[in-house]
Design goal:
globular, alpha+beta, 11 strands, 17 helices, two-stranded antiparallel ribbon, 457 residues, 5-stranded mixed beta sheet
Length: 457
């Protein structure tokens, strides 16, 4: 699923791992000038590695970590997925797996565009017209305009109330854990905290929250996960229908708040006047969808991975519990680095560009690149002993919230706050809380998703 060596504790047999790693090492000569080589050619990647093949994301985590380590050592980004798709479009992409390359692509938005689509596959034009454009699929000036509207809505008063909500919800969840002793940490705690906090912040009425959560789950359950053809045909458009229902509910709330504003984020977004602009109903729906996926699923996964990482690394757990004030911030950032909740986003080049400087590999206008954040977060040139889980790692310039630039995660501060408050409440009151067995992971190429995690205390 993800790109870390431990994948937050995923296990495998030594034979399977060794076989996959041997396949990585048996590739063709990657040196410039070797037969069939050159930026983007098949000779530029280790044999047996295909990041475009869903089967790769079902390999044991250590095998995938070994593959990314080999890819980082290549002289140029390897190319995958070559071939013609619908409309004669080239389906290929260059894999940016090194830290410096991911940062360069993130911070050079005039060269690496988000507008054609950052997900794989890119959203169809009709889908974007129907549902509106998410901020992640926009470039300036539209992206900057929407980001200004959203940023202005996060007033000091709103942020102060959100911090109070985080503490209240975390306390309520740990109360419930104590009294009901649920078995699944994801459903009972990790998914509940960010969902309830975001709904409180947006001003979503309690009576429709469960319905919205159901639509979110239907819309995102298969993101980045390969499915048999018969299963895809059995539920055609299920995700899009769920997205439409969810956005319809939020747009209706937006219309109501324009007439009768309240003290919540929806009201602020639909009544704000930034350069004569405020969010339309469709833009509000697209933003809410992004906020739920980016703000709920990523934090949920990071919280679950963190509990398991602290379970399978008892020395680090003892260090954290011995001085929460000193180590909690570092633990949160190391959890995000090690697990990297979002695996990848893509960009499209608008001009020819030499990666890394005038002597770097040439990428052509119109070509696609995929930014592999998990691989960058384990780049040996930036992180000493990158496969180790070390809550005292300093500095820790991870890319778990993006590589900088205009698309750096708006919710980074919120996610850190949620994780710190929840872990403090949990480990102060239930210091023996720990995972049981291995997490149930989804073999997704998009996010490092935890479906379930058994736990006890």
């Amino acid at each position: 699923m993800g790109t870390t060596a431990s994948d937050a504790g995923a296990t495998t047999t030594s034979g399977a791992t060794a076989g996959a790693a041997a396949g990585v090492r048996s590739g063709t000569d990657p040196r410039p000038g070797a037969a069939g080589s050159g930026p983007g050619s098949a000779a530029d990647r280790p044999g047996g590695v295909d990041l475009a093949d869903p089967a790769f994301w079902q390999l044991p985590a250590p095998a995938r970590a070994a593959a990314f380590a080999e890819l980082r050592r290549l002289p140029a980004p390897a190319r995958f997925g070559a071939g013609q798709g619908r409309g004669g479009r080239d389906r290929g992409f260059h894999a940016l797996v090194r830290y410096a390359d991911v940062v360069e692509a993130s911070r050079t938005p005039g060269v690496f565009l988000s507008g054609p689509g950052v997900t794989t596959p890119e959203p169809a034009r009709w889908v974007r017209l129907l549902f509106g454009d998410s901020m992640v699929n926009l470039d300036d000036p539209r992206h900057a305009q929407l980001r200004r509207i959203v940023s202005r809505a996060f007033t000091p008063r709103l942020l102060s109330r959100v911090e109070e909500d985080i503490r209240r919800v975390a306390t309520e969840l740990v109360d419930r854990v104590e009294h009901e002793r649920p078995r699944d940490f994801v459903n009972a705690v990790a998914a509940e905290l960010p969902f309830r906090v975001i709904c409180d912040m947006m001003g979503i009425p309690a009576e429709i929250r469960r319905a919205i959560l159901d639509q979110v789950n239907h819309a995102s359950e298969h993101t980045g996960v390969a499915r048999p053809l018969r299963e895809r045909l059995r539920t055609p458009g299920r995700g899009l229908r769920a997205l439409a229902r969810m956005q319809g509910m939020v747009a209706a709330l937006g219309r109501e708040r324009r007439r009768r504003p309240a003290d919540d984020l929806i009201s602020a977004l639909v009544t704000a006047d930034v350069d004569g602009r405020r969010l339309t109903g469709r833009e509000l729906g697209a933003f809410f969808s992004l906020l739920l996926v980016a703000g709920v699923e990523t934090t949920r996964n990071a919280l679950a991975h963190g509990l398991h990482l602290l379970t399978v690394h008892p020395g680090q757990r003892a260090l954290l519990l011995g001085d929460l004030d000193r180590h909690l911030g570092g633990a949160v950032d190391e959890i995000v680095r090690h697990s990297t909740p979002i695996i990848q986003f893509r960009r499209t080049l608008v001009v020819d560009h030499r990666l890394g400087g005038p002597d770097g590999p040439l990428l052509r206008a119109g070509e696609k690149v995929v930014l592999y954040y998990g691989s960058a977060n384990h780049d040996e040139t930036v992180f000493a002993d990158p496969e180790a889980f070390d809550i005292t790692r300093t500095p820790n310039p991870h890319l778990g919230f993006g590589g900088g630039g205009p698309h750096y995660c708006l919710g980074a501060h919120l996610a850190r706050q949620e994780m710190k408050v929840l872990y403090r409440e949990l480990f102060t009151r239930l210091p023996e809380a720990r995972s049981v067995g291995e997490p149930e992971l989804a073999p997704s190429s998009f996010d490092h998703r935890v479906r379930a995690l058994r736990f006890t205390f």
